[in-house]
Amino acid sequence: MELYRMTAEELSALLEKKELSAAELTKAQFERIHAVEPDVQSYITLTEEEALRRAAEIDRRRSEGEQLSKLAGIPIGIKDNLCTKGVRTTCASKMLGNFEPVYSATAVEKLEDAGLVMTGKLNMDEFAMGSSTENSAFQKTKNPRDLTRVPGGSSGGSAAAVAAGECTFALGSDTGGSIRQPAGFCGVVGFKPTYGTVSRYGLVAFASSLDQIGPLARSVKDAALLCDLITGRDPRDTTSVPGDGSNYYGSLNPEMKGKVLGLPKEFFGEGISDEVKSAVLAAAKVYEGLGATVKEVSVPLIDYSLPTYYILSSAEASSNLARYDGVKYGFRAAEFDGLVDMYNRTRSEGFGSEVKRRIMLGTYVLSSGYYDAYYKRAQKVQRLLRQSFDEVFAGCDALITPTSPTTAFKLGEKLSDSMQMYLTDICTVSINIAGLPAMSLPCGRDKEGLPIGLQLIGNRFCDQTIFDVGAAFEAEFGRLDVAL
Ligand code: GLN
Prior knowledge:
The protein is of the alpha/beta class. It has 15 helices and eleven strands. It has one domain (1-484): Amidase signature (AS) domain (Amidase signature (AS) enzymes), CATH 3.90.1300.10. It is 38% helix and 13% strand. An eleven-stranded mixed sheet has the order 1-3-2-4-6-5-10-11-9-7-8, sandwiched between helices. It is globular. Glutamine is lined by residues 128-131, 154, 174-178, 206, 313, 425.
């Protein structure tokens, strides 16, 4: 089998047995990238030279008998909002077009320490705002399952690269669905960990109370392996929680007998396509066949999750993005007349229209006179939503829902209608609002052959359960092969 079709688990076995060298693997990986990248356009920056150098170093260490981590030598792509020391980190924005961080994100550092080989930085919606990766200031990534369609967003570059065999797995970030929705659209596995389990240090902030880093991979086991590496308390992120030494991969237990899975009826209502609905209900039947109990449940406040998400996330974004003023880093307008004009022109020219829309919305909901009516009320709904998930999880181990209401849509189809674009997040945003772990994995295809995503939602800090439930389904349904 071609190396680019293999999982990290398979490649790691070959590397450990010395049947394959990291240098050979890296070379083959870049051949694949050069073959399909003109069509897919998932990378903003490629780091081929450095990757080959690192791979040679891994081979040298292995030949000297050093005990390396299981994933040493495996190629990984990184979303371009994770800081990488000395490697341009753009957030797909003109504002950071020439930004070279002087440090790496904690998650990236951990991968480097474990000997993974970074292939490059992956395309995304500007500052992670969007659901199709079309808001990138640089290029439009195509869905490798159908090049006329979007890969989803905002981690669209990460999902497309994994689906097209342009890296073995990738890191993405998820504020309202940005790992899970593109994973669903591209037919790969995407996991958003419980808020706080992965350090956000070095992740360029969008909405800090919702942002979380996580893996996109070709299998549930690969996602578990990657999560084991990046999870843990970090003194540089005060919202990170203790929990070092997680072993999701080693503890995987796909036994479904005795598990209770809930089907929340609010996730199967208006707007969810019939094909998506029936694929997810068929997945529920698979679980029943494996001995799980499946029951209908209700999370009553889901209807309010979308407006709540867009108020909270935009409020935080308007504050987080105030730092891009043409002084501290990044882009500055070439011509201006005084300080205030410099701010105005820099921000007008440096940000794209979706980012400006969020900053304006966020500033509005935080302004005096509207704060109580919008921001404060959204925080109250957040509390109630958390409570209603708590109630549901008192009687269930995990919830089964669609990842998105439809399969991947056409490039350009929703670009001019923000409301339509926002509605694609209807199944994912509530999970971030409540800080829960959730996974998307393929559970079927529609009549045009496009992948359908199954979302599994767990209780806070029950990430292991989600890996277990995901692995059980994958063992029955199988994985989707690399596209193209
Ligand atoms: N699509 C959502 C948004 O535009 C989610 C983005 C994300 O998770 N980063 O805000």
